[in-house]
Amino acid sequence: MNMQLMIKQAQKMQSDILKSKEEINQKIFPGKYSYLEIEINGKKEIIKVTIDKSLKISDEEDVEMLEDVIALALKDAITKVDKETEEKLGKYGSGMSGLL
Fold first, then answer.
1. Could you give phi then psi for residue 47, rounded to 5 degrees?
2. Is the pLDDT of residue 93 over 90?
3. pTM for the complete prediction?
4. Which of 50, 72, 91, 94 suits 82 as a labelling partner, its CA being 20 to 30 A distant?
């Protein structure tokens, strides 16, 4: 195979990977559980947390429940980022993950 052609193909693949990763990084992924919603970006940075205003926190048990709900909503959002990343970048192989 022609070496210049291989280099061009590698450069195109690199460009495609970077473009796909940037698209994922810019996208907002919602995570929802019960009365709480979290939004994160593709870099898994928390953008927004929304708690239903009707929620009344009155004791330690309510705080523990809220902590659990936050963790579940965040897990939901992170799962969506991971799924999107696998769908868009998985075709390039798992060996590339360290480069992203």
1. -100, -40
2. no
3. 0.76
4. 50
Domain ranges of the chain: 17-93
Rounded Cα–Cα distance for residues 69 and 49 (Å): 12
The predicted-structure confidence for 9-41, as pLDDT tens digits, reads as follows 989 999 999 999 999 999 999 999 988 999 999
Residue type, 57: I
> Among all chains, which residue has been given the structure tokens 């799924």?
83
Share of the chain residues as helix, strand and coil, in percent rounded to the nearest 5:
65, 20, 20
Distance CA 41, CA 59 (A): 32
Strand ranges (E), 18-61: 28-33, 36-41, 46-51
Exposed, middle or buried by CB within 10 Å (0-12, 13-18, 19+), for 95?
Answer: exposed
CB 2 within 8 A of CB 81: no
Q: How far apart are CA 9 and CA 12, in angstroms?
A: 5
